[in-house]
Design goal:
The protein is of the alpha/beta class. It is built from 12 helices and 6 strands. The protein has 2 domains: about 80 residues; about 190 residues, Rossmann fold. A 6-stranded parallel beta sheet has the order 3-2-1-4-5-6, sandwiched between helices. It is globular.
């Protein structure tokens, strides 16, 4: 049954509705709703919604959406996309984050105080210091295989609005196969590079932790994509400090709790005083 159309959709809400309609068999009523959603936005909002649709780490893109449309509906969608084209490369940042030990504690220890405030902190980075950027630019990149950790799971665990997720390839690779570390590093680097490619008008804020492959991943991304990285935020967990060579880079911000991170980002002018207070209140 088609979802009801709501006037005044935000770009993020429009993206969510389109993805839900495309993800499955798209009949005539669903096709009409997709086009109606596009036509119901002004050109700027539509451009942002389409940017978000193409900027995620999953398979649903503008091309995938168009492949589900027939005849006149595809023609109308192409017209709407053409009018929005000038607004599809807005400036700003994307946040590309690890999950376990970074966004939430590994295992079921949801009481771990190091992660309190994560929801408000990611929200601040998503909307920007002035609060005027679209939501929907937080993306999960994880070595997990997508069976036990998914975008919806990430939202349940952390409260963070995770727009998309890219996973490790196989569960068996996590069981100690020879060369696992290098394989994980290469895969995670490739996934982050995919996110950079899908968001050509935006630089990245990278987030990870000190427990596994993230430090080496960050070294390689900083070396190979120096012009695309604004910040690297490294969660120091289980007493493991950020490697000295990374910490020496001015863009790298080690932190132990999300309140600690919020205070450091506020001092740098990355988040506002109110956003800092939101994190403190969330803690």
């Amino acid at each position: 049954m088609p979802m009801p159309i709501t006037n005044g959709l935000s770009p993020r809400d429009a993206q969510r509705q389109i993805e839900a309609l495309v993800d499955g068999k798209t009949g005539g009523a669903d096709q009409e709703q997709i086009v109606s959603i596009l036509e119901g936005l002004d050109d700027r909002q539509r451009g942002e919604a389409l940017r978000l649709l193409d900027g995620g780490g999953d398979r649903i893109t503008i091309e995938e959406m168009l492949s589900d449309l027939d005849g006149d509906r595809k023609t109308r969608a192409l017209t709407a996309i053409g009018a929005a084209q000038p607004f599809m490369r807005s400036a700003g940042t994307i946040v590309v984050s690890d999950g376990d030990d970074t966004m939430w504690p590994k295992g079921d220890n949801n009481a771990d105080t190091r992660y309190r405030g994560a929801r408000a902190l990611y929200r601040a980075l998503d909307v920007g210091k002035n609060g005027d950027d679209s939501t929907g630019d937080v993306h999960l990149v994880t070595a997990r295989d997508g069976i036990f950790v998914q975008a919806g799971h990430a939202e349940d665990r952390s409260g963070v609005d995770v727009a998309s997720a890219r996973y490790g390839k196989t569960f068996s690779s996590l069981l100690g196969v020879f060369g696992l570390f290098e394989a994980q590093v290469k895969e995670k680097v490739s996934d982050i590079e995919t996110m950079l490619d899908r968001n050509p008008s935006r630089n990245a804020i990278l987030m990870g932790d000190t427990m596994q492959a993230d430090p080496e991943v960050f070294r390689r991304i900083l070396r190979n994509h120096d012009d695309r990285v604004e910040l690297v935020l490294v969660h120091e967990v289980n007493g493991r400090a950020c490697p000295a060579d990374l910490a020496a880079d001015a863009r790298v911000v080690p932190f132990t709790t999300y309140e600690d991170l919020a205070r450091k980002l506020n001092a740098r002018g990355v988040i506002s005083d109110q956003q800092l207070q939101d994190v403190v209140d969330d803690v």
